[in-house]
Amino acid sequence: GTNFTKTVEAIAPQVSSNVQIRMGSVDASTQVTGTTLDYPFVKNVKVATGRYFTQDEKDGTLKVCVVGPTVVQNLAGDANVNIVGSTIAINRQNFQVLGVLAPKGASSFGQDQDDVILVPLTTAMRRIFNKQNINAIFVRCTTPQMMPLAQEAISALLRNRHHVQPPYPDNDDFQIRSQTDLLATQQSVTGTMTTMLSLVAVISLVVGGIDIMNIMLVSVTERTREIGIRKAIGATPRDILLQFLIEASTISILGGLIGIGLGVGGSRVLSTVAGWSTIVNWTAIVAAVVVSAGVGIFFGIYPASKAAALNPIEALRFE
Q: Which of 134, 208, 218, 237 has a CA-to-CA distance to 108 between 20 and 30 Å?
């Protein structure tokens, strides 16, 4: 209807299941997805080498397929081997490889999106799975803003086709998920994680600050005589205050720099050993130095003012 022309740009039905595959003497298992010609456009996948199947091949239920890089890796031992034109046995039926997809990486659920074989929908339904029904339809909307509208239109259409009785959505025999919903869920999870980690960081900063304050207080007590001598030869309370504040902030800045070194080093090691892509943010590094200096100054003020307030005569008498 008119609703769909405004909201939906393209659709790709799919039927998919796990299957056993074989090339030469190598066995593997993967997911076969039967779909239509609009699939690459809807799912934003590209064919890196070879080509995608045609309308004629789909209509003729031909045994042709397009494979993901992980499948090539599993069957040929190297993802860069050109297997276009080769034959792969899917559930003991020979399929000709037309093309290899460009890598996409893991999905938001951590699933390998490259471990897939695409075949024409009719071929999958009749020759591989012997199924009458599809199990999902991917829809590409015209704009992100049109998504809620498209969801409503699709829900209404499916309820009508499936003769679903109200109440909705309780009685629906289908599920509609949008990428924006998934994104919102992921962002709320990462937001919670960030808050938790920030709290841990704040607690450790406070603990570190209290440590600095205790050390400086001990230092003031131990150096009472030194403070008395400085005051006796003309040091003002401001000079004493500055001396102790500089000491406190130097300790904390040094600690901050050591921490930054460990953090950057740790992230490099992680990316090398575990293969994670870690990003070191320069603003975070600058913030860390500023915060550690601030902690030193904040927690150093009390011991420094205590030192500055000492009576020179009492201080000189101190043993």
A: 134
Condensed to tens digits (0 to 9), the pLDDT of residues 135-146 reads 888 888 888 778
Beta-carbon neighbour count of residue 77 at 10 Å?
9
Of the CA atoms within 13 Å of residue 186, those in its CB half-sphere come to 10
Of the candidates 274, 112, 107, the one whose C-alpha atom is nearest the C-alpha of residue 186 is: 107
Q: Which segments within 60-178 are labelled E, that is strand?
A: 64-67, 87-90, 93-101, 116-120, 136-141
- Gap between the Cα atoms of 76 and 66, Å rounded: 15
Whole-structure pTM value: 0.59
DSSP state of 112: B
CB 204 within 8 A of CB 268: no
pLDDT band at 52 (very low <50, low <70, confident <90, very high): very high
**Averaged over 92-98, what is the pLDDT?**
91
